[in-house]
Amino acid sequence: MRSLFRIPQVAWHQYSRRAYPGKSIRPFHISSPLAVIKPFLLSDIGEGIKEVQIIQWFVEPEARVEQFDKLCEVQSDKAAVDITSRFDGVIKKLHYEPEDMAQVGQPLCDIDVLSKIEPEDETALGSVNEQAGSPETPQQPQKAAERPQSQSGKANKPLQVSKAPNTRDASSLATPAVRGLLKDLKIDISEVTGTGKDGRVLKQDVQKHTSSRSLESAPSSSPIPSQPSSDTAQTENIIPLTPIQSQMFKTMTRSLTIPHFLYTDELNVSGLSSLRHHLNTHPSLPSQQKLSYLPFIIKALSLALDNYPILNARVDTDTDASRPCLVMRSAHNVGIAMDTPQGLIVPNIKNVNTLSIAAIASEVQRLQSLALASKLTPADLTGGTITVSNIGSIGGTYVAPILVSSEVAILGIGKKRVVPAFDEAGNVVKREVMNLSWSADHRVVDGATVARCAEVVRGFVERPEGMIVRLR
Question: Annotated catalytic residue: which of 100, 121, 260, 442?
Answer without folding.
Answer: 442
